[in-house]
Design brief:
6 strands; alpha/beta
Length: 270
């Protein structure tokens, strides 16, 4: 039997190099809403019996909405980081009557889609993504040894320089966060997600009805200023914000500012 729930839940959707734990810095403040934190199919603790066909955007969206239906939530505020931001926007377009708001934190949208479709032509604009995609494809070819190798490297000082491009101030990022990125990396899942976004139809986002907050860090290597411009031209009710002194993980580097932005978004969505 599903647990009883009512009202609007906060639903947190992580990126392709993480798990629900990447949102922990955002959870220190109290919230008037119930919070739902999900490991998406193929990541975190949701890898058992996970199949590649579950890693597409549509399949992951169905998995998320089925969980929310089982929990009894009729509406939701979606908070998505990176790939999770892409997924949140897709859910808002597919279930507009149930989506109260979307916060897309460094959502990997137009630029990453083009880079996944044409990596050689995009290497000068998105070298970090193209390089990571090549690395993840190579590691995925190793089978179970791939994630094990990433976890082993993640426990060494080598992981710091490898993840430095993701942050505006790499020296300020805790060793625990760096180890977590290594622990939660799933090469096959990352590669499947990249393929899924390569040919996505972004026109469906024109049907999003709810308020949308779209952010990027000012040193973000995955989400470019042009991505925010194109989101503003596509989604009817969107506010775009560039967060200073921040890379791709605003939820880690600038959680207080993100919390403030979320509070304003949820007020607008009431």
């Amino acid at each position: 039997m599903a647990p009883e729930a009512s009202g609007t839940a906060e639903v947190y959707l992580h990126g392709a190099a993480g798990s629900w734990t990447t949102f922990e810095p955002l959870l220190s403040a109290a919230s008037p809403h119930d919070r739902v934190l999900i490991d998406l199919p193929g990541w975190g603790e949701s890898t058992k019996r996970a199949r590649l066909e579950l890693f597409g955007i549509e399949a992951m969206a169905r998995a998320v909405t089925e969980v929310l239906a089982l929990l009894g939530y009729p509406r939701w505020n979606l908070v998505g980081h990176s790939m999770g931001g892409f997924l949140a926007l897709h859910i808002a377009a597919a279930w507009p009557e149930r989506t109260a708001s979307v916060a897309a934190i460094s959502a990997t949208t137009f630029g990453v889609s083009e880079a996944a479709r044409e990596p050689l032509r995009s290497v000068s604009r998105f070298p970090a993504f193209v390089g990571m995609r090549l690395l993840m494809r190579s590691l995925a070819a190793l089978g179970p040894a791939g994630p094990a190798l990433v976890r082993a490297i993640g426990a060494t000082p080598v992981m710091g320089p490898l993840t430095a491009p993701l942050f505006a101030d790499p020296a300020g990022i805790s060793a625990g966060v760096i180890r977590g990125l290594g622990r939660d990396a799933r090469p096959a899942s990352f590669s499947a997600a990249a393929r899924a976004v390569a040919h996505y139809d972004f026109d469906q986002w024109r049907g999003i009805r709810c308020p949308v907050l779209a952010t990027r860090g000012d040193t973000d290597v995955f989400t470019s200023p042009s991505d925010l411009d194109r989101l503003a031209a596509t989604i009817p009710n969107v506010r775009t914000v560039t967060i200073p002194l921040c890379g791709h993980f605003a939820n880690v580097e600038q959680p207080e500012q993100v919390q403030q932005l979320l509070g304003g978004l949820w007020t607008d969505a009431q």
